[in-house]
Design brief:
Layout lengths: L16 H4 L14 E8 L6 H9 L17 E7 L2 E7 L9 H14 L4 E5 L8 H11 L5 E5 L7 H12 L8 E4 L8 H10 L18 H14 L11 E9 L4 H6 L5 E9 L2 H8 L4 H18 L3 E9 L7 H6 L3
Parallel strand pairs: 1-3, 1-4, 4-5, 5-6, 8-9
Antiparallel strand pairs: 2-3, 7-8
Helix pairs in contact: 7-10
The chain binds guanosine-5'-triphosphate.
Guanosine-5'-triphosphate (GTP) binds next to helix 2.
Length: 336
């Protein structure tokens, strides 16, 4: 079977060749040598994985924050290019498990890793290669997928320090590195180079997702992540690990007369539970007279409305689930 753009005039092709191919073909078919596949971004907590994923995709899909271990799910961002498509899997920081939650996260990471075409290993330039990085290096050294090192946060250090960092990476024992690319995700520097390098390691094949799609993460998970991000803004260090957000339901309201007049979609009610482990944490999240919770609501609602492209009524409840990180039953209920 030939596709439009693959040589010849294309006139002998039925008009709906794209439909025949399952609707996956971008208009004009995919170029010869088109590459596609899965890439997994790994690195120790705070290494810049989420920020890099966002920079590669060009839109906000994974949450970021200054605190370690804020990413709890394998969120996929999709990089669309003329010559290829990279499906990015963002993972929680691979680390030594201390709690049951930590253990489950590591299992999730391992499962993801065994099934990707390229691994992007983030090593931040503003820190020396340390035991945490070597732990990850050991974990990924047996994978069949080639390893591309992204020397992240290159903007945060001097040229001399960056050179030293690149040499340290090159000297890492027991790890075969295919390429090393220094990048700055916040400045958008070298992101195109990294994209090019990652693409080069993918197999030739058709696009895996239709054009324009950035993530296949269910909306509710992204909504929960946006709320978690807002709730973590400016709170004490002990809180991040104790916070879980669950979208309970999303219900469309009856259209009002004003909705009908303006021919717009009615409000969407989004009911959300925010779980903490202790009463003291509940008080922190809610704030004086509910002021913090209102802020969290206002801030995350903006992101949710942008994500869904419609107006949202956000209903936030804070609940205490005692020591949920150590309790298998509670973990299951909270979606881990
Ligand atoms: N200067 C600088 N800072 C960066 C860059 N990329 C990320 N950061 C900062 O590093 C911190 C951690 O970034 P994240 O992207 O959340 O790191 P992560 O590896 O996803 O973290 P976890 O979710 O905890 O595993 C944030 O404060 C970012 O703003 C960069 O290119 N330059």
């Amino acid at each position: 079977m030939r596709f439009p753009g693959e040589g010849g005039s294309g006139e002998d092709l039925p008009e709906d060749a794209n439909a025949l191919a399952g609707g996956l073909l971008p208009s004009g078919g995919w170029a010869e040598g088109f590459r596609s596949g899965f890439a997994c971004v790994v690195g120790r907590p705070n290494a810049g994985k989420s920020t890099l994923t966002n920079a590669l995709v060009g839109e906000k899909v994974a949450i970021t924050s200054g605190r370690p271990q804020t990413t709890r799910r394998a969120i996929r961002g999709i990089v669309h290019r003329e010559d290829g498509q990279i499906v990015l899997v963002d993972t929680p920081g691979l680390h030594r498990p201390r709690t049951l939650l930590g253990q489950r996260l590591n299992d999730l990471v391992r499962e993801t890793l065994s099934d990707v075409d390229v691994v992007v290993f983030c090593l931040p330039a503003d820190q020396k290669v340390g035991p945490g990085d070597r732990h990850i290096a050991r974990e990924i050294s047996h994978l069949r997928a080639p390893i591309v090192v992204a020397a992240t946060k290159a903007d945060a250090v001097s040229k001399e320090r960056l050179m030293e960092h690149l040499m340290d990476i090159d000297r890492m024992e027991g790890l075969t590195i295919a390429d090393i690319v220094p990048v700055s995700a916040v400045r958008g520097e070298q992101i195109d180079v990294l994209t090019e390098v990652v693409l080069g390691h993918l197999p030739e094949g058709p696009p895996l997702y239709p054009e324009g799609e950035l993530t296949d993460e269910p909306e509710q998970v992204m909504i929960a992540e946006l709320i978690r991000e807002a709730a973590l803004e400016g709170v004490r260090d002990e809180l991040p690990h104790s916070l879980a957000v669950v979208v309970e339901e999303m219900i469309e309201r009856e259209p009002t007369a004003a909705d009908k007049h303006a021919q717009r979609q009615p409000l969407l009610n989004v009911h959300v539970n925010v779980y903490v482990e202790r009463d003291s944490q509940k008080a922190i999240i809610i704030g004086k007279g509910g002021s913090r919770l209102r802020e969290v609501g206002t801030q995350s609602r903006k992101g949710i409305e942008a994500l869904l492209g419609r107006r949202v009524y956000l209903d936030l409840h804070v609940r205490v689930a005692k020591d949920w990180q150590r309790d298998p039953k509670q973990l299951g209920r909270l979606g881990f």
